[in-house]
Design goal:
The structure is a single chain. The protein has 601 residues and is an alpha/beta fold. It has three domains: 260 residues, Aconitase, domain 3 (2-Layer Sandwich); 166 residues, Aconitase, domain 3, CATH 3.30.499; 153 residues, Aconitase, domain 4, CATH 3.20.19.10. 29% of the residues lie in helices and 18% in strands. A seven-stranded mixed β-sheet has the order 22-21-20-19-23-24-25, covered by helices on one side. Strand 21, helix 19 and strand 22 form a beta-alpha-beta unit. It is globular and about 70 Å long.
Amino acid sequence: MNLIEKIIANHSKFDSVKPGDIVDIEIDARAARDFGGPNVVKNMEENNLSLDDPSKTMFTFDTNPTGSDQKYAVNQQIVRVWARKNGVKIYDIDNGIGTHTMINEGIVVPGGTSVTTDSHANILGAIGAFGQGMGDQDIAAAFSRGKVWFKVPESVKLNFTGVLPSNVTPKDFILNLLNIFGANKLLGYSAELYGDVIDQFSLSDRITIASMGTEMGVIILLFPPNDEIMAFSEKAAGRKLDKVLADSDAVYAQVHDIDVSTFKPMVSKPGAPHDTAFVPVDEKIKIDSAFVGSCTNGRMEDMRAVAEVLKGNKVAPGVVLKIVPATDDVWRQSMDEGLFSIFKDAGALISNAGCAGCAAGQVGQNGPGEITMSTGNRNFPGKQGKGSVYLASPASVAASAVAGFVTDTEHIPDEPMIFSPEEKLENLQKALEQELVHEDSPVEVEGRVWFIKEDNIDTDMIFHNRYLAITNIDEMGQYTFDNLKGYEDFSKKAKSGDIVVVTKNFGSGSSRQQAVDCFKSLGVQAVIAESFGAIYERNAINAAFPIMTYDNIDALNIVDGDIIKVNFETGLMENKTKGTSIQAEKFSEVQLEIYQNGGLF
């Protein structure tokens, strides 16, 4: 078996598993965050679910630890009251990012398993552990049963050769991988990383790379744990651990050899993490703001890299720099090492530990026309506000803040770029212009089709994060697709009974259940895609919302407004308007059972 198969088998009743097997997995750490927690509590209460093991259950308040939004504040208090009642630990607003805490405190160790409402829970691949972001129903099931069902994915092996250039950071490393594989070439695979350069990566390096596996579309990026990682985790957990590695004869669906000597510093251009390019230093793209933090780049090594650039320098006039450590330990150590003094002398804002800019709430958002350099893992439209976001390494972000334009550490000018007020005003003005319920759960539905020919429609486009505090499904429909360009008025035009057909990687991104429930709220009967984001697929299945996949839809010859009929049991799709049909992927046994049950519960 390969690494993910080993981990899954070790946490199941089976001695071995293979791709496609659907098994119950024992979960070592079950967590919910401040935006997902209230819905988990709601599911526990409404379904009269008992708690399996409080010692393995926890909440993390990291997306909006300041409680700056009233709905977040209420939701946090709902969770606190329920947690006290049930003896569940809360890592409250003074703690920082939950997945980092799981690693730092040995809550999850190499070979372990965890699920949480964080779509970047696969960050645990950094220590060779299985981590998955899931929706609130899945997490409630994990709280109650201690297990979740999971389909064993196929695996790919990435072999890295060559010597990594000295100016290429771990963030650049993952951006180079995104440049190679995009958002969906490895969609749904577990990827294992091997080679001398991988062995040399520190825990912090591995966390940065693993945290962006979601943006590549993979289930997880797994780093086989070396002796250094094992020693760290054993110290954190306070016990001796077994090293779990792939067998020498493990089977992989794909094997890729990658020469890292060709890697260069990169940025992700606004709109999509996978839209990468070499740092455009010659273009002198003026920036308004910069952000350092998130689960991708908020550790001590990142703080030190930023301090090295900022020491003796000032943030360019008119540019705002926000710095947010990932955990309280990083915050305290940064203060002890004098890094905060460097940051403040340079003109930066420092916040308490948490997700910060990535969650678009803790330290504010950017506005229309604003250009931001960020170390976050996502730059989907609207993710960090109304402006445009470039993703880059901490060093490049700090260098850009000093320079006043998008650059790297090797191209910081003697004098920063200064704004042209007229030009900025012109740019800003341009920017400003610019529970469906089946009582009998029918296996066949018919309705008017919406055909949206766009890959990688993420959950921020489907249901924006500014609405995450909404828990009433009746209120969700009105916000469906209001952040998808060209479909902002979808909720006003959609009719109950409509069917949505899309292309690749629908629902990538966050673990939010609302991105499924908003369609149910509108009465949409099904979403059919060439492929789905892994978390979105689980959320839809568990909520008994019909989703199906197809290989090729050309023969159906559909256009907006056609009437199509879909059979979930057989996979047959018919275009009643044109008299055409194709064979799509029928519901699996598990999906059909959950659908006919009306949901996971």
